[in-house]
Amino acid sequence: xxxxxxxxxxxxxxxxxxxxxxxxxxxxxxxxxxxxxxxxxxxxxxxxxxxxxxxxxxxxxxxxxxxxxxxxxxxxxxxxxxxxxxxxxxxxxxxxxxxxxxxxxxxxxxxxxxxxxxxxxxxxxxxxxxxxxxxxxxxxxxxxxxxxx
Length: 149
What we know:
The protein is of the alpha+beta class. The protein is built from one helix and ten strands.
């Protein structure tokens, strides 16, 4: 009867340990990637917002800070749910390009609203409350309620 030979127990142990270490390294890199995805936080904070009365118009000023851990951009500004870019002459100097904010940085957004102008179903007159909403590229919305003086 021929004798069969296999690998020695020492070699088998070395192979098992090597495979275990390789799998542990792969899992560690995978988990690092997943943790990185979940620890990136988008958070914008509106510090202040106000409307200042002028001659037949209001100047709206909004200060916003990125208090999150990832860069983000404000891609749309809405008034009462209507994109400000569709308001035409009612908001003549509406921002047209995205506003990018890095973590820890802030900016001030200004635009004017014409008295008597309309945006959607809203007619801009003194005493009218408007909800200005900043929409980010991450899909989040940051509202602020203002009353036109």
